[in-house]
C-alpha cells in the first residue's frame, strides 16, 4: 500500500522540462542546476540538453531525469557539424521537437537563448511555455545581416511563449526595445538563484591556490569571448604595469578567444602578471583568495558570477552594464564607466586607496525568495 501511495504522490507532481544547450561550466548552466536541484522535491523535473556533456551534469540530483539530443560532446564535433547542427535545429525544429521532446508535461522551460528556445516554442497541448532570457538581446547578436535574421526569427518565436523571464530589469527593457511586437504582458524579472552553501563549501576545498605570492590579486571568471572585453583588460593592465603598478590578474575560463588573448598578453610583455588559468571545475577557492573580483565586460545579462563573489564577500569591480543590478545593495562594489580610460583610472585609484573599499563584515547573502518567485510562476 505504501508503494502505491508513493507512486500516486509522484503522479500528482507537476511535470516540468527544462531545456539548455549543455551543462558545461557557465552562469546560466550553474543557475539551472542549482534551481532544479532546489525544486526537485516539489516537481517531477527533466533536463533536456542539446549536447550530452558538461562538468555540471555530475551535480544534478539523481531524482532529476536527463535527456539529450546528441550523445556527443560539443567540443568533439567537427567544424562542419558545429555549423550544421544549429542550422538543422532551425530548419527541422518541429520534427526534432515532436520526436525527441514533446511529452505530457505541464510546463516547458527554455532556459537559454538560441536553439533551445526555438525548439521549445513548438505547440504542446495544455503545456505552459516559458522562456528564460539571461543575456542582453540588444547586444549579444551584434549587427549585420545575421543579426537581422535572428531578430526576425526570434520575434515570432518569443510570441509563442506564455511567459518571458528576464534576469535583470535592463535586459527586459532592452528586449522590449528590440522586439517591439512581443506582448509586454508576458514579460517579468526574476533574479537568478544559486546555492550559497555549495559555493562556501567548494571555496574551502582548496587552500593557497596562489602559493606564497604576496602581490595584490585581481580575478575574473568568465568565458573567453569578445563580450567579456579581456583584450581591453590586457591593454589597461599593460599600461598600469608600465607605470609602476605591481599586482597580478588571473582569468579563470576558456573559450574561442584564448589563443588570441595569449598572443596579446605576450606581445604586451605581461605574461608574468596577466595569467589565463584556463577552465576550473571549482573556481571558488581562487575567488576567495583573490583581493578583488572583477567583471569588466562590454555588456552583461546580469553576471551570475557576481552572485558567487558576493557569497564570498569579495571586493567587486565591474563596468557599467546590466550587471550593476547585482551589486545595487552591496556596499563592497564599485562600478566603473565602460571605457578603457575609466577602467585604468578606476583600477589605479582602487590599488592606491585600498582602505576606501573595506569589507562589509555584516553582509549576509540571501536569495531564497527567488525560488518562491519561480514556484509562484509555475503555480499560476
Side-by-side strand order of the widest sheet? 3-2-1-4-5-6-7
| Strand-residue proportion | 15-25%
* Rg over CA atoms: 22 Å
Shape: globular
Mean pLDDT: 90
User: What is the distance, rounded to the nearest whole angstrom, between the alpha carbons of the first and last residues?
Assistant: 33 Å
| Uncertain residue ranges | 1-9
Main sheet summary: 7 strands, parallel
- Listing every helix as H and every strand as E from the N terminus to the C terminus, the arrangement reads HEHEEHHEHEHHEHEHEHEHEHEHEEHH
Task: Considering the chains and any ligands shown, give keywords for the structure.
globular, 7-stranded parallel beta sheet, alpha/beta, 18% strand
Describe the structure in your own words.
This protein is of the alpha/beta class. 39% of the residues lie in helices and 18% in strands. The chain contains 15 helices and 13 strands. Strand 9 (247-252), helix 11 and strand 10 form a beta-alpha-beta unit. Helix 10 packs across helix 14 (340-352).
Would you spell out the secondary-structure blueprint of this structure?
Elements: H1 2-12, E1 15-20, H2 27-39, E2 44-51, E3 65-70, H3 79-91, H4 93-100, E4 107-110, H5 115-120, E5 128-133, H6 137-140, H7 145-158, E6 163-166, H8 169-178, E7 187-189, H9 196-203, E8 216-221, H10 230-242, E9 247-252, H11 258-267, E10 274-278, H12 284-289, E11 292-295, H13 304-311, E12 315-319, E13 333-336, H14 340-352, H15 369-379
Parallel strand pairs: 1-2, 1-4, 2-3, 4-5, 5-6, 6-7, 8-9, 8-11, 9-10, 11-12, 12-13
Amino acid at each position: 500500500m505504501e508503494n502505491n501511495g508513493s507512486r500516486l504522490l509522484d503522479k500528482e507532481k507537476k511535470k516540468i522540462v527544462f531545456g539548455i544547450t549543455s551543462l558545461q561550466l557557465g552562469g546560466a548552466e550553474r543557475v539551472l542546476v542549482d534551481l532544479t536541484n532546489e525544486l526537485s522535491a516539489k516537481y517531477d523535473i527533466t533536463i533536456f540538453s542539446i549536447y550530452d556533456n558538461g562538468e555540471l551534469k555530475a551535480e544534478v540530483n539523481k531524482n532529476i531525469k536527463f535527456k539529450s539530443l546528441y550523445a556527443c560532446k560539443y567540443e568533439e564535433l567537427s567544424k562542419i557539424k558545429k555549423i550544421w547542427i544549429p542550422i538543422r535545429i532551425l530548419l527541422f525544429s518541429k520534427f526534432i521537437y515532436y520526436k525527441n521532446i514533446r511529452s505530457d508535461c505541464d510546463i516547458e522551460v527554455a532556459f537559454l537563448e538560441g536553439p533551445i528556445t526555438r525548439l521549445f516554442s513548438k505547440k504542446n497541448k495544455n503545456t505552459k511555455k516559458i522562456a528564460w532570457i539571461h543575456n542582453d538581446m540588444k547586444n549579444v547578436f551584434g549587427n549585420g545581416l545575421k543579426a537581422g535574421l535572428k531578430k526576425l526569427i526570434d520575434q515570432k518565436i518569443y510570441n509563442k511563449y506564455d511567459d518571458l523571464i528576464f534576469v535583470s530589469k535592463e535586459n527586459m527593457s532592452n528586449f522590449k526595445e528590440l522586439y517591439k511586437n512581443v506582448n509586454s504582458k508576458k514579460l517579468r524579472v526574476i533574479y537568478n538563484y544559486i546555492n550559497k552553501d555549495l559555493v562556501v563549501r567548494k571555496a574551502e576545498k582548496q587552500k593557497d591556490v596562489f602559493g606564497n605570492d604576496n602581490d595584490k590579486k585581481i580575478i575574473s571568471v568568465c568565458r573567453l569571448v569578445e563580450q567579456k572585453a579581456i583584450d581591453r583588460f590586457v591593454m589597461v593592465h599593460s599600461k598600469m604595469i608600465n607605470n609602476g603598478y605591481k599586482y597580478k590578474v588571473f582569468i579563470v575560463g576558456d573559450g574561442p578567444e584564448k589563443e588570441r588573448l595569449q598572443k596579446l598578453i605576450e606581445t604586451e610583455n605581461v605574461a608574468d602578471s596577466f595569467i589565463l588559468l584556463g577552465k576550473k571545475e571549482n573556481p571558488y577557492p581562487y575567488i576567495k583568495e583573490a583581493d578583488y573580483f572583477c567583471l569588466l565586460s562590454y555588456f552583461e545579462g546580469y553576471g551570475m558570477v557576481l552572485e558567487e563573489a558576493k557569497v564570498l564577500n569579495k571586493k567587486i569591480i565591474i563596468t557599467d552594464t546590466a550587471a550593476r543590478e547585482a551589486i545595487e545593495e552591496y556596499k563592497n562594489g564599485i562600478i566603473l564607466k565602460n571605457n578603457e580610460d575609466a577602467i585604468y583610472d578606476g583600477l589605479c585609484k582602487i590599488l592606491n586607496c585600498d582602505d576606501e573599499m573595506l569589507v562589509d563584515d555584516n553582509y549576509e547573502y540571501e536569495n531564497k525568495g527567488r525560488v518562491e518567485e519561480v514556484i509562484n510562476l509555475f503555480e499560476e
